[in-house]
Amino acid sequence: MDQRATGRTGETSPSRTRGPIARHITAAAESLREIRMAWPQLSIYERFEELVAITLTALISLVVVAAVVNLCFRIIGLVLYEIFDPAEHTVFQAVFGMVFTVLIALEFNHSILSVLQRKKSIVQVRTVTLIALLALVRKFIILDASKTDPLTILGLAASVLALGAVHWLVRDQDRKDVEAAA
User: Fold this and answer.
1) Are 114 and 124 in contact (CB under 8 A)?
2) Which of 18, 175, 24 is nearest to 109 (CA)?
3) CA distance 97 to 156
4) Which of 4, 56, 76, 145 has its CA 20 to 30 A from that of 29?
C-alpha cells in the first residue's frame, strides 16, 4: 500500500488511512471552503453557476444513493428468492441496465463536481460524449435484439461510432494542447 509520511517517522497521511467516504466528504468540504473564499470575487452569474452546481450535485447524489439502495434490494431479492439465473438474459439485462444507470449518474455527478472545484467550465464535450456513450452501451445491454428493428440497431451503432469519433478527436486535441503548453 502506498503510504505518505506526515513528517513523523512511521505515520501515514490521514487522507490515506481514511475510507473513501471520508475522503469524499473531506473533498466536498474543501470545495465548499474554496467557494466561500472565492465568493466575494465572483460575478453574479458565477455565483448563480456555483449555486446551481451545488444544488445539482446534492440532487444527483440523492438519486445515486436511491439507485444503489434499489439495486441492492433488487439483487438481494433475486438471490434470496432464487430468481437470479445468470444464464437468463432478461435478468442479466435488467441488473446490468441498473448498474449502468448508476454509473451514468456517477459520471454526471463527477462532471459537476469538477465545475465546483474550478477545474473546468460548465460544458465539457469529453464528459458529455462519455456519458452519451455510457447511455448507448446501457441501451445495447438492455436491448432485446430479437424484438428490435434492425434500423434501430443500425442507428444506435452509428451513434456509438459518431460519439466515439468525437471523443477521440477531443482527446487528441487535449493531448495536443498539453504538448503545446509544455
Assistant:
1) yes
2) 24
3) 16
4) 4
